[in-house]
Amino acid sequence: MTTAVTTPSATKTELYRLLGTPVKGGVLVIADHASNHVPEGIDLGIPAELMNQHIAIDIGVAEVAERMMAPGTAAWLAGISRLVCDLNRDVGMPGMFPQVSDGYAIPGNRIGDEGRAARVAEYFHPYHAALESLLAETTPALIVSLHSFTPGLATCDKPRPWEIGILYNKDERAARIAIPLLEAEGLTVGDQEPYSGRVLNASMNRHAEQHDRAYLSIEIRQDQIADAAGQALWADRLTRLCRAVVSKLD
Length: 250
What we know:
- The chain has one domain (11-248): 3-Layer(aba) Sandwich (Aminopeptidase).
- It is 29% helix and 17% strand.
- It has 250 residues and is of the alpha/beta class.
- Strand 3 (27-31), helix 1 and strand 4 (73-78) form a beta-alpha-beta unit.
- Helix 1 (61-67) packs across helix 5 and helix 3 crosses helix 5 (228-248).
- The strands form two sheets. Strands 1-2-4-3-7-10-8-9 form an eight-stranded mixed sheet, with helices on one face.
């Protein structure tokens, strides 16, 4: 499980950690898959070692977000595993409570309609209500939705060559600024790869696009941020990127 950074302005609940102080016109980093925590009373029925793999948590993103903390930048990190409830989904969307993930059975998610509704009520709705309240109060200049992806999947032998992917749905404002800046650093950038924001953009659709808030949806390949050196490098890179994007946004 990831370890919280101890700061005077840190707020922690079971559903999320808020690091730093959000400010109007600043940057808010959001990581919906930052934790592998399973709340008491839920048994996913899988070996403990799987909880440290990508099926349970976006490896490295919490540490990158923590290193990005500075005046004007704050981070909102989810506090439960994506296997308990995938917070970057819409209610009823396939994969919100995966019964199989990258070839691994998740027997504890065979919970039926009543069980799914209970988790939505306990975790999904309160998480997003609290996040929306924060965004409405602070009005950031840029939201950064931070995720990581595997170099490859166990169920697919096709490698993923991109160091970073930029996703978006209808609002391309920040993406079109960020992609050439990243390419100028010599990076192989996936424009809507390895995932498409037309499909996997639920949190940003809800909190950014519906409110005309500029955002970047970022996927970093896990091997790039698997250790402290990589996390520090990418935190610095993304901090510079965010400053540049904010300066160029209308």
